[in-house]
Amino acid sequence: MLVAAAVCPHPPLLVPQLAAGAAAELDGLRTACDAAVASVLAADADLLVVVGAAPTVGPFPSDACGSFAPYGVHIAIPTPTSQPRSCNGGSDSEPPSLPLSLAIARWLLERQDPPTPDPLLFGVSADADAARCASLGAALAERAPRVAMLVMGDASARRSLKGPGYLDERAAPYDEAVARSLAAADTAGLLALDPVLSAELLVAGRAAWQVLAGAAQGGSWSAEVTFDEAPYGVTYLVATWTSSAEVA
Prior knowledge:
two-stranded antiparallel ribbon
């Protein structure tokens, strides 16, 4: 049963070494993500599930590696100091296997004190429709008596003329609808997100949010959006959901 969840974005610039001189510009986002992850870990769940965009649907092995080398800095995930493992930072002989969403999630988990033991890393592809995502979420929520979920995903990347996808007037209303759904733990609202429109708006989190909705359906939740901004033309949302039974 799902008892807690956190929603975080996964821009590479979240990692200070990748942002270089602009690192301070996302300090507020890092702080919000750290607090959201900490709140999920405080739920004392039997299983932590991390969900993020991936080329295919399914779990990744617990020893999967990732790297931020494609973004300009050779940082292996998990780092050698957090867990000894043959992750070499993404050389040609050992390409990283974790997609960006799950690599950023592992990086966020490593920032906790102490670092989090291996979670269940689960990828969901952009072509997974709402019904499949909901079914996946429901199944993941049944993996243990107490399940916590870290859900990774950016909202629209078309919020400004300088954004990755140029300005689209539909982007702001879309992001506002997502923020309202996250703030109200509105699973129906998340499941109503249109995959076609989401793809046109370069939304990376649609499928992962719908997995969360499937995991949370039927529950009663205390929810809060703690970050909602669109720097660089991309909307980043951070939210926490806690079962009302845990709050009472």
